[in-house]
Amino acid sequence: MACIEARGLRKAFDKTIALDGIDLRVEEGRILGLIGPNGAGKTTALNAILGLIPYQGELRVLGRDPWTEREQLMRDVCFIADVAVLPRWARVSQLLDYVAGVHPRFDRAKAEGFLAKTDIRRASKVRELSKGMVTQLHLALVMAIDARLLVLDEPTLGLDILYRKQFYDSLLNDYFDRNRTIVVTTHQVEDVQHVLTDLMFINHGRIVLSCSMEEFESRYWEVMVSPERLAAARALKPMHERQVLGRSILLFDHTDRQQLAAFGEVRAPSISDLFVAVMGDHAGTAKGVAQ
Amino acid sequence: MNTQSDAAPESSFNSQAIAPAAMSATRPLYWSVRRELWENRSIFIAPLAAAGAALFGFLISMIGPRHRIGGLSALHPAHQSESVALPYDIAAGVMMATMILVTVFYCADALYGERRDRSILFWKSLPVSDLTTMLAKASIPFVVLPLLTFAITIAMQFIMLLLNSAVLLASGMSVATLWTQLSVIQMWLLLLYHLFTAHTLWPAPVYCWLLMVSGWSRRAALLWAALPIVVIAGVEKLIFQTSHFAVLVGTRLIGDTPSAAFTAPGTFPMDPATHITPGGFLSTPGLWIGLVIAASFLAAAVRLRRYQGPI
Fold it and tell me: Which domain holds residue B293?
């Protein structure tokens, strides 16, 4: 059974179409990065998956309809919807009590263990904690829940690089295993490049690229080409071209690496390079990449 | 309110959940009520402060020049008991007014606060249904506040009684009049009855209206709750030169029940026990009409919470 399965998922707010008929299948044990510019429909897609908004089309999460079965779904799904959604008036101990009280799969000792590694005190109120500490606290609560799907919407927004690195490290080392699935959206793509198993670009409510990281690493190549070889390189139809220090960097899709080596040094692009390449030329019509 | 109605859907889902998921259906409700008490500390701080202020006022009145206890025996027995009970009734009145105020402000913020501070995204990430959350929020005006007000009021009146006796003894007078004229148990029974009839069931439609508007408005929930009432009352006055609607809402809010709930209000507080007439109250059609309206507002609030995200 796929963890998330969507067909023709559509959502419109008044006149804006946030999701324009998305087909999506996320298998168990994957870490999917959902990448897109602001307003691309990432959060809308996640909200539909979490049962926070009604939608059109077909959507099953762990075999359930999220909109009509949110409460039962939340026994198996955790989410950090945003930084700083923990109630500011609450004490750390109260949040532990509450989650332990309402969640059948919360392991309080585990959460206490995670908190022991931080500077967070039980008696502190959320409003007294720094932004990084609030994220640590939320992560400690979520990681102590034995869930099958974890959804993270911009979990590290506004955090410094140390907290961000620590966040993904704990997620991988202390939480993730092959029975769990993680879906994450972020603008800080460099943080998640080595975390993800699958990559999805979304723009204007449509999926414009979807591939596994293995595929990403064998499919896209970047070559730095000197001016005299540029014409020949361009003949191979690069999907994108940019200038760095007077030299051209060409990004190729589905082109033989050996062939490219003739033009200069070949290397794997970063997710952000590919993102710029795809979104740069009118993402909605970037057909060459979408297939 | 009807707590059993939320248990039914939850238990059926429990059966299909996997092993550790077995959890009593009332546990999320219990913890959701705890959460409301943590978040809204005015629920108990306000009545405690009011009781403290009333006690302070009572103390001042006893050492002040106008204290009436000394001249009590000169009065006719009927007036005696009235005069003895008066400060106790005033203090209880302060507590009830406090309860109405706390309830109004609590209800107007109940579904609004969690959307404003975005914490609704956290609450909705946990396996607690909108119905359970709503029942927990409704339990504050319908169960927690009346019981709390009752407990604090009797504690306050008990301290008043002790202070009163101490002052009488200190001035060499007998406390017999005080203790015989003040039928304490009956007074407290009447208080409990009054709190749950006049200040809980009777104003239920007003409280539930506030809960619903708090789930709908994007700012200033109290304003949006009051505005339609003011407008409807104004239009009625303009067209029919009457004030039925304003009177209706006003009497519900302040707990002015129809006379069927209490016999002979004029004799209050002669023999408090005779005022307790639940049969009369429960057979008032206005009560049931109000409860039906309250329930529909509450159902609308549950639905609103399901659709609403952070503001």
Answer: 4-307
- Number of separate domains in chain B: 1
Q: Mean of the per-residue pLDDT values for chain B?
A: 84
Q: Decide which of A56 and B257 is more confident.
A: A56
pLDDT tens digits along A116-175: 999 999 999 999 999 999 999 999 999 999 999 999 999 988 888 988 999 999 999 888
Task: DSSP for chain B, please give it.
Answer: --THHHHHHHHHHHHHS-GGG---THHHHHHHHHHHHHH-THHHHHHHHHHHHHHHHHHHHHHSTT--GGGGGGS-HHHHHHHHHHHHHHHHHHHHHHHHHHHHHHHHHTTTHHHHTSTHHHHTTSS--HHHHHHHHHHIIIIIHHHHHHHHHHHHHHHHHHHHHHHHHHTT--SHHHHHH--HHHHHHHHHHHHHIIIIITTHHHHHHHHHHHHH-SS-HHHHHHHHHHHHHHHHHHHHS--HHHHHHHHHHHT---GGGSS-GGGTTSSGGGG--HHHHHT-HHHHHHHHHHHHHHHHHHHHHHH----
* Across A33-60, average pLDDT: 93
Specify the CATH number of the domain A31-39+70-204.
3.40.50.300
Query: B205 or B167: which carries more pLDDT confidence?
Result: B205
Please count the residue pairs, one from chain A and one from chain B, whose beta carbons lie less than 8 angstroms apart.
89
Which residue type sits at A233? Answer: A
Type and span of the H or E element at A58: strand A56-61
Report phi then psi at B257, rounded to 5.
-80, 160
Fill in the DSSP letter of residue A119. Answer: S
Exposed/middle/buried for A159, CB within 10 Å: 0-12, 13-18, 19+?
buried
Residues of chain A found within 8 Å of residue B42, distances taken between Cβ atoms: none
Inter-chain residue contact A103 with B126, CB threshold 8 Å = yes
**Could you tell me where in chain A the CATH 3.40.50.300 domains are found?**
31-39+70-204
Q: Tokens in use for B263?
A: 């016999």
Inspect the interface and report whether the beta carbons of A82 and B20 lie closer than 8 Å.
no
Please tell me the distance from the alpha carbon of residue B150 to that of residue B189, in angstroms, as a whole number.
Answer: 10
> pTM for the whole thing?
0.86
Taking 80 as the threshold, does the pLDDT of residue B73 lie above it?
A: no
Residues from chain B contacting residue A47 (CB–CB below 8 Å): 309
Residues 6+ apart with CB under 8 A from A291: none
A5-A10-A15 Cα angle (round to 5): 160
The 8-class DSSP code of residue A202 comes to: E
